[in-house]
Amino acid sequence: MRSLTSILDGIFFGLPFYLRVLIIILFLTASAIFSYRRRFLTVSGVFTSAVLGFIVFFIGGVSGTVIFLFFFISASMLSRLSDGKNAVAEKTGRRDMMQVIANGVPAAMMLVLYGISHNALFIGAFAAVIAEAEADTAASSIGMLSLKPPVSVVTFTPVPPGLSGGVTVLGTISALVFSFLISILYMGTLGCGFQELLAVASAGFLGALFDSFLGATVQVHYRKEDGSLTEKRYAGGKTLERSRGIPFIDNDMVNLLSGLFSAAVFMSISMILQ
């Protein structure tokens, strides 16, 4: 039985080019207004999301857009769970251009590669990237509610809540659940078998763990005057001293690399299962 989104895809891709573009522009305009008024995005984030959204809708159709839109709305709502609770993260609240690029470019890239090659493997990779971004957001936001303090994913020693590289049992379970949620949505829209569903969920979850690993090893951290670590470069109008990590690898870069890692993991699992 065909899903509703697949039926809508058939109608959408059967329309003339100009009409498809018009529908996308109207949809993105409404989405941009909603996102800005709900304070999900900054002005730069709205513009960047519109560009990426156009790529997703034009190539991925209604099905791809449903997955992308579900991530965007749910991730924005999850992020609000930790608003005001995370004192060490580089960015909180509304997503700006760099945050949108970090989470959205790998997904859009997979669809562009699909559009060029028509290899369905890239559609699954697109879903895996979304699953990773969703899992990472859930782990960070829900993990902040944990009654037990986080520990480093590398050394298993306690770290400040919200610091990249720290994990909690609650956050890890949340990452697994939300990664599966995206894979189930993928099966219900674009249609896939049980093996592919597991591959998407596994790649998304492993990508979230990889995100934490990068956060604990190569992501840049700074030391405040009281000796504690933070991801913020500036505090009290002063530039903080770098304590560890590579200067240009901030949280946005980590998210970008983790998305690409998830795509690679999905394709590797899929080729092994073939």
Task: Offer a few descriptive terms.
mainly alpha; globular; single chain; three-stranded antiparallel beta sheet; 274 residues
Describe the fold and architecture.
The structure is a single chain. The chain is mainly alpha-helical. It has one domain. Helices cover 66% and strands 6% of the residues. It has eight helices and seven strands, in the order H-H-H-H-H-E-E-H-H-E-E-E-E-E-H. It has helices at 4-13, 17-37, 43-79, 97-117, 121-143, 169-189, 194-217, 251-273; strands at residues 151-152, 166-167, 221-223, 229-230, 234-235, 238-239, 241-244. The strands form three sheets. The protein has a three-stranded antiparallel β-sheet with strand order 4-3-7, with no helix packed on it. A two-stranded antiparallel sheet has the order 1-2. The chain has a two-stranded antiparallel sheet with strand order 5-6. Strand 3 (221-223) and strand 4 form a beta hairpin. Helix 6 runs antiparallel to helix 7. The longest helix has 37 residues, at 43-79. The model has no long low-confidence stretch (mean pLDDT 91).
Kindly state the mean pLDDT as a whole number?
91
Q: What is the alpha-carbon Rg in Å?
A: 19 Å
Order of secondary-structure elements: HHHHHEEHHEEEEEH
pLDDT below 50 for ≥5 consecutive residues: which ranges? none
Biggest sheet strand line-up: 4-3-7
Biggest sheet overview: 3 strands, antiparallel
Number of separate domains = 1
* Number of contiguous helices: 8
Q: Quick gist of this model?
A:
The protein has 274 residues and is mainly alpha-helical.
